[in-house]
Amino acid sequence: MEIGRSIRKLRQEWGITQEALAEAMHVSPQSVSKWDTGTTTPDIALLPELAIYFGVSMDTLFSLDKDDYLARITAMLRDEHTITAADFTWAEGYLQGRLTENQADTESRKRLVELYRHRINRDMLAWGRQAEEGILQDPMDVDLVKSLVQVREKRQERDRLIAFLTPLAEADTDNYVVREELIEACIRNREFLKAEQLMGTGACRPAYSLFRGDILLLQGDEKGAVQIWLALAESLEEQEKTDGGLAAWTYYQAAERLEKIGRYDEALRLYEDSRNAAVHPKPLDSLYARAFLYEKLGRLSEAVQMWREILRGLAEDYHITNGETIDWPKRELTRLLAGMEA
Questions:
Q1: Hey, what CATH class is 2-120 in?
Q2: Rounded to an integer, what distance in angstroms lies between the CA atom of residue 158 and that of residue 179?
Q3: Nearest to 270 by CA among 222, 234, 309, 221
Q4: Of the four, 128, 283, 328, 337, which is 20 to 30 A from 73 by CA?
């Protein structure tokens, strides 16, 4: 194993005893002796420390025994549930170094991809666990519930999501936060009967009409779905007087659904209704939605108008005048204006 001979060479050049190196690396002298003879190699977490100790680059150490360390990374990815930060940093640097030398090194690239996938998987497991623990503490926390839905959908764990939310919904029929997310999960999972049963208990909510339209659409009845969504929108006038925020949200949700099935004129109208119903500071979601849809339809002057309203809303309602939140709409506006002039 070349890495051991390299360490022995460096140690001898610097006049460092096995005992002194062992003390510096917090290992036994016997371990250093085994490195010297090639019986074993240092733990990968020690390599950065060894490089610093001898004043050489990591690449110098890595390049001496490529196949051995590639095999160790493979074993680490296969066998370890959690990769330490030190091991991750070392493996990432090593693999990137090999790819710098040879972009066609497919084996190194595959392991680097797997390394990132391993980390994402670990982080998503922690994400879901923390979200669940937070929801158990506060089942009405909208952000935590939506975050849990997001991670479970990303991991294709809808059954697990439904199993977690169901007892919470049963325990508190007034918890619309959990109930509505559970109903949507059931509909996406095509558990229509359970979704209907959940909508049959607790207080009736405007979202239920949205969900019933979703069910009809999945069952192939697009006309019926559209009728439900448009009827819901027409019924929101009174809702606007008592809860403008809920009315604005409902208009927006109906508009999104209509846009997805190509009912663009109705969608644009409901996006505008959502904006008008909203309370101050008015959310900008409906303006962004209209800007993108107008551009999709080739109605560039109206898209430009939406981006200008977005910039005005950011400045006047949210007091945001710099940073990426402002820069992005400015770039979009500049791009559209340039396209109109071309």
A1: mainly alpha
A2: 15
A3: 234
A4: 128
Residue whose structure tokens are 């150490």: 61
Alpha helices in the chain (DSSP H): 2-14, 18-25, 29-37, 47-54, 58-62, 66-79, 85-101, 106-137, 142-154, 158-171, 176-188, 192-199, 206-218, 222-234, 237-242, 244-260, 264-277, 285-296, 300-316, 324-341
Instruction: Tell me the C-alpha distance between 203 and 176, whole Å.
Output: 8
What is the number of residues in the chain?
Answer: 342
Is residue 149 within 8 Å of residue 185, measured between CB atoms? yes
Residue recorded with tokens 């160790």 = 72
* pLDDT digit string, tens, across residues 72-81: 788 889 888 8
pTM: 0.75
pLDDT of residue 261: 98
